Amino acid sequence: MVTPSRSALAWVCLMSLLSADISSGQAAGNPETVTDVGTILAPLPAKSSMPFATAMFVQENGIDASAYLELGRQLQLAAPFYLWIGILDFPQDTPTGDLIDSYATSMLRALDIHGFNKSDTRMLYAFGHGSGGFALQDWGIAYVANQTKTKPLPAPLRGVILLGSYLQRRLRSITYPTGVLTLAGDMDGVTRITRIAESYYHLILHPKHGPINFGFPHIVLNGVSHMQFASGPPPPIARELDLKPEQSDHNATIAISSISSDFMALKFAEQLDDGNSASNAPNKPLFRESTKKAKQRLRTMVDGADDVLAPIVESFKAEAFYHLHLPCYDKHSEANCSSRSPWVETAQALMCGLEVHKASVDDHDILWPVNEILPHDYLPEILNSCQQPLHCSLNTTSVAQNVYSKIDAADESLAPIAAQQQEVKFNSRQRCFEHAGIQHVDFNATDGGSLCAFVNAHAYQQAVET
Fold it and tell me: How far apart are CA 301 and CA 186, in angstroms?
C-alpha cells in the first residue's frame, strides 16, 4: 500500500478543530424507538426550526445495528437539520438487496408516524457501511426512479454516504442518480484503499459523463479502520482483515459525522439553488453562507485525499491495471483501452542490464494473452543491433498479460485488486548483450541467476519510494 506523508494529511488534524463544538456536547436525551425493522432516534428538540431530514443506515455484514447509534447521535449534533436517525436491522445482521426495499419502506412509514411527514420539504440521506453500502446501491437507483410516481410523495433521496464502501463496477456505465460521498479510512483492511483509488479514478479523474463537481467526493481519513465506522465487537472478517487504527474511536466518529454533515448540507443547498422553496428552510442567505464554509472544508479534505489516492492510481497505470481500462489486444482503434504496460517496459531494460556498459533499452510492450498463438504468436524481439555497446540504444518489444485473483470478480475488495502477477515474455540478457555488440556471451553467466527476483525486488523498492 502506498503510504502518504503526514504533511499531506494535515487536514485530518484540522477536523478536530472544526468539530470541537460538536464533541463538547452530548447527545443524551433523544429517545430511541425499536421497530420491526430497526431503531429510530428522535431528532434533537433544540433543532426543531431547522429543515427536516432522515439519515437511514444500512449495517455491515455481521455488525449489530446498535453499533451505529453513537455515530447517529453525533451526526444529529453536527448536522444543520432536525434529523431523525433510522438504523435498519436485518436478519442475522446481513443486509441483502431483496430485503432492503421492504425494510426501507417500513422504516420510512415508521418515521412518518413519529413526525417526519410533518414537513413538505423533508429529505432523506442513506448511509451504507461496507457490504451494506453495496446492498444500498440498487435500492437508491430504484427509489429515485420511483419517488415522483409514489403517492403521497416520499422524501427525496438527497445523497448517499458510503462508509468504508464504494460504488461497484457494475454501475460504472451509468450516472448514479444522486450525489454519493465515498468516505474511506486508510487503515481499513476490509475495504482496501486501493479499491477506493480505483473508484476515485473513474468518478473524479475520468467521469464517464462529464464534470461532476462535488457530486461524488472521495475523502480518506488518516488512521481510521473499517470498524471505526461503527462500534462494538468486530465480525469475523473484520477481526481477520482490518488494520489497527491510529485514531481513537471517539475522534473517528467526530470526523465521520462532521464530514457527512457538510456533505448533507451541501446537497440541501443545491436544492435551494435549484429554486425549490421550503416553508421550514432557514434564512437562505445565511444557509448559503454556512454551506459555503462546508464546501470549503470538503474541498480541503478532497485535496488531502488526492495526495493519498493519486500515487496509487499512478501505480495502477504502470501495471496497465485492467479495471482502469481493459487491454486492447488487437483492437488498438478502440478508445480507452490499454495497449502496453509501462512497468514491463522498465522491467525489460532491467532484464537486459546494459547500463553497466553505458548502453540503453527502449522497449515497446504489448498486452496479449501469453499462451495464445492464434491468431498471433507474439514473441519478444530486438529490432536493431550495434557494433559496440558504448552509447548503443536497443529497440525491443515484450509481451505481457496481467493475472488477477478470481475473488476480485465479486468486487467486494476482499482480496488485493492489483494483478497477482504479470506473465511476461522478455528478451534474455544474453540476446541483449549480443545485439549490443558484446562478444562471446555465456547464457549461464548472464541469465543463470534469478533475474525475475531482481526485477521483483526493483518493483518492491519503487513501491516503497512512491
Answer: 14
pLDDT digits (tens, 9 = 90+) for 378-419: 999 999 999 999 999 999 999 999 999 999 999 998 889 999
> Quick one: cell of 339?
495497449
Burial of 68 (C-beta count, 10 Å sphere; 0-12/13-18/19+): buried
The share of the chain scoring above pLDDT 90, in percent, equals: 74
Task: Locate 416 and state its grid cell.
Answer: 488485493
Beta bridge partners of 163: 129, 183
Report the DSSP pairing between strands 381-382 and 360-367: unpaired
**Gyration radius of the chain's alpha carbons:** 27
* Nearest-angstrom CA–CA distance, 409 and 185: 23
* Per-residue pLDDT tens digits for 69-111: 999 999 999 999 999 999 999 999 999 989 999 999 999 999 9
C-alpha atoms less than 13 angstroms from C-alpha of 328 in its C-beta half-sphere? 16
